[in-house]
Design a protein that fits this description.
The chain contains 2 helices and no strands. The chain is mostly helical. The relative contact order is 0.15.
Length: 59
């Protein structure tokens, strides 16, 4: 496993490079979250040890 140190802004940059939905469907609440918001949410969860050792999935 590769170990790396990443800042919240670095996480936002990585997330901004991910592909977004080509045709999001609002009726099933399928919409993109901007990278800064996603990074803030993930960073806070990580700092509180809420996701350490867990798998994070978007269903």
């Amino acid at each position: 496993m590769i170990s790396m140190r990443l800042s919240k802004s670095g996480l936002a940059i990585l997330l901004s490079k991910l592909a977004q939905f080509e045709k999001p469907r609002a009726e099933i609440e399928q919409y993109p979250t901007d990278s800064e918001t996603a990074a803030a949410l993930l960073w806070e969860a990580f700092m509180n040890s809420d996701i350490s050792g867990k798998t994070v999935a978007d269903l």
